[in-house]
Write a structure and sequence with these properties.
Length: 308
């Protein structure tokens, strides 16, 4: 009887324990599944930062999706795709001598003037990437934007400057036509970079370094030109002074001539008015009635006009 009861209870216990084991297996399976999901979740969701776009790359065919992904959370299949992030905010590329300012060592631009004189330059270019064309930019170069800047863009800058500087005298480049050369180079860069979605916002030549011999020759020329200008100004000043003196002399001579002519005219009029009768009348008018005193007892005679 006892064995019978024991057998019965043992059978019942086994039956009770069996459903608990199945449940445990299911729970473990669910936990394992969640763990797997959590493990792969970071690779299935990509966060794209503001001011950036995402480029979706298909691993199976190696192609690039033509539509960029905007900022925010983006889902993807980590086994079949990848996302590369590109900045679209304004950036500045500095190409200068020595490190610093974003330069990779010595990034100065070296070109030649129309005379063949070498010139080294420090330049900078501010630009933005057009979001819609970023996938094509990546498909063309297959690298990050920093490598593109110091590769293709740097070469485009050098080529544009060589075309512009190579057509101008070195004295014009470092002097009155520097602004013109800068603007022309900027227009050439816009034309060459815009097909890749690189929009040039500003381009400047920060420093020009011509050979020292050229600087000395230009300085000597400037000094000589200044001396020639000073001499020319002094000559003009003397000419103006001489001309002024001549005008003054001519004025004085003209005044003297006019005065002489006036006096001669007056004398002429006076001579014409002095008739004999007028002279006798004036003499009579001035006579005081006294006979002039003369020696020898002679009486002077004064002729008076005869009455008519």
């Amino acid at each position: 009887m006892a064995s019978s009861i024991s057998g019965r209870f043992g059978t019942v216990g086994s039956a009770v324990r069996a459903p608990g084991a199945q449940t445990m297996k299911r729970v473990l399976a669910v936990v394992a599944g969640v763990a797997i999901v959590l493990m792969f979740l970071p690779s299935t969701v990509t966060y794209i930062n503001p001011g950036h776009v995402g480029i979706l790359i298909h691993r199976t065919g190696g192609g690039v999706d033509p539509k960029p992904l905007g900022p925010g959370l983006q889902l993807r299949n980590p086994l079949l795709s990848a996302i590369v992030e590109y900045p679209t905010f304004m950036q500045t590329l500095e190409l200068r001598r020595g490190a610093g300012g974003g330069a990779r060592g010595n990034d100065e631009i070296n070109v030649n003037s129309v005379e063949g004189q070498p010139i080294s330059m420090d330049v900078s270019m501010s630009f933005e990437l057009e979001p819609a064309r970023v996938p094509r930019l990546y498909e063309t170069f297959r690298t990050d934007i920093d490598a593109i800047q110091h590769g293709y863009v740097k070469q485009a800058v050098r080529q544009a400057l060589q075309e512009v500087v190579g057509a101008l005298p070195i004295a014009d480049i470092i002097g009155p036509r520097k602004a013109e050369a800068t603007n022309t180079a900027r227009l050439l860069l816009e034309k060459r970079l815009s097909p890749y979605g690189i929009e040039v916002k500003q381009f400047t030549i920060n420093e020009l370094r011509p050979p020292q011999t050229v600087i000395e020759a230009i300085n000597t020329k400037n000094v000589m030109q200044q001396q020639a200008l000073t001499a020319q100004n002094e000559l003009q000043k003397n000419e103006f002074q001489a001309r002024g003196d001549s005008i003054k002399a001519a004025g004085r001579a003209k005044a003297i001539t006019a005065e002489a002519e006036a006096q001669a005219r007056a004398n002429q009029l006076l001579a014409q008015s002095l008739t004999p009768n007028l002279v006798q009348y004036e003499m009579a008018k001035r006579w005081d009635g006294k006979m002039p005193q003369v020696s020898g007892g002679a009486m002077p005679l004064m002729q008076l006009p005869m009455p008519k």
